[in-house]
Amino acid sequence: MNKLKIIFKVIFTILFFQLNSCGLKVVENHGQIYEKNIDFNELQIGKTTKNEVVEMLGSPSTTSNFDKEQSWIYISSEFKKYVFLDGKNTDQKILILSFNDKTLNNKEVLLKNDINNIEYEETITDSRGKKINWIKEFFTNLNPDPYGKK
Known about the structure:
There is one protein chain. This protein is of the alpha+beta class. It has a domain at 27-118. The chain is built from five helices and five strands. Strands 1, 2, 3, 4 and 5 form a five-stranded antiparallel β-sheet that branches. A hairpin with a 5-residue loop joins β3 (71-82) and β4. The longest helix is centred in the N-terminal third of the chain and has 20 residues, at 2-21. It is flat, with a radius of gyration of 28 Å.
């Protein structure tokens, strides 16, 4: 009887620690966490070059296609979650660096709350490539199953 109690206590202890570990919070960081790598004041407008930025921060998350890649964007986000559950985005930062040829022209940091205030274009681009023209529709109607039934 005494051995049975010890076995139950051992099993209960193991189950307790197993179930307790399911509640552990996990923090996942995505992207460049630039505030841990450098001091933001080291990026000086008119002095810092593209090569120096790459040495400090690494390559950007994305570049702007509209201004011939003169704007570099660094994105970082932090997620906190429980081991088996979906996470919640707790922190997000976007660093936007604009360049004149090779030197830094402007720097801007957007925080999680600032991102919600960005106005997006809401118009829809018409995609005419998905419409079937009358020639294709005509020939499709002549032989709807050109390879025969299988």
